[in-house]
């Protein structure tokens, strides 16, 4: 059986594998393939700027609320309410993600 060898396993107190350390390039490649990476700039906007993930992404992408709302087929006011929400419904998260050109998982942080 072939096992990858380009990583380090860290054992827990019980002697079983608890963590795996992989080279950074491999880590990035795995996340890029999953489509779930969130740029540092977006994370900073969300946490330092106290923005919702949707607003942080929109700001990062240099879009207006009206532009995103138009892509979603809703009014700017309706989008503003969605963007301000910290607990989006799954269907809303999917629609916003599609309008922003990202995956729904990238709004879930």
From TrEMBL:
HTH cro/C1-type domain: residues covered: 55-107
InterPro entries: Cro/C1-type_HTH (IPR001387), Lambda_DNA-bd_dom_sf (IPR010982)
CDD domains: HTH_XRE
Recorded superkingdom: Bacteria
GO MF entry, a single one: DNA binding
Pfam annotation, one family: HTH_3
Protein name: Transcriptional regulator
Lineage, opening ranks: Bacteria, Pseudomonadati, Pseudomonadota, Betaproteobacteria, Burkholderiales
